[in-house]
Amino acid sequence: MKAIIIQERIEEFQSTCREQGLRLTPQKQEIYRVVASTDSHPTAQEIFEEVKNAFPKVSFATVYDNLRKFKELGLVQEMNCGEGCSRFDANMSGHHHVIDRSTGKIMDVILPANQSIPLPKELEGSAIKEIKITYIV
Ligand SMILES: [Zn+2]
Q1: CA–CA distance, 80 with 88 (Å, rounded to integer)
Q2: Handedness of CA 40, 44, 47, 53 (dihedral sign)
Q3: DSSP 8-state symbol, 43
Q4: pLDDT tens digit sequence for 24-46
Q5: Pairing state of beta strands 77-80 and 86-89?
Q6: How many angstroms is it from 133 CA to the middle of ligand 1?
Q7: What is the whole-number distance in angstroms between the Cα of residue 39 and the centre of ligand 1?
Q8: CA of 66 to the centre of ligand 1 (A)
């Protein structure tokens, strides 16, 4: 992850928290920093383990509640990866994912701008808010 991108994400996070009247506690900032500093799409458990390095007394519930709050505020995305597993992503730009079954790694991919995604017949006339594609390799 480029330092400049992490810095931009953190600034955006701070200004959103200020606008929303959310207290910027050092713990909250650390939780966001952990998510924003990686493109590995960590699970809540992985984020919790890393936050614990700086805040040994933090509980999993606190980390998870904050992640849900960040999601509500549009600061992170939550990806459901099946079987009760969810992963968090601070990359809020339109992108899709590739899951590598053999390594379990998730990577971001962007489709070429001129490529349109076909709409299934069942969805004709629906207001599509977002299309998320997950490629599994
Ligand atoms: Zn992503």
Answers
A1: 9
A2: negative
A3: B
A4: 999 999 999 999 999 999 999 99
A5: antiparallel
A6: 11
A7: 7
A8: 19
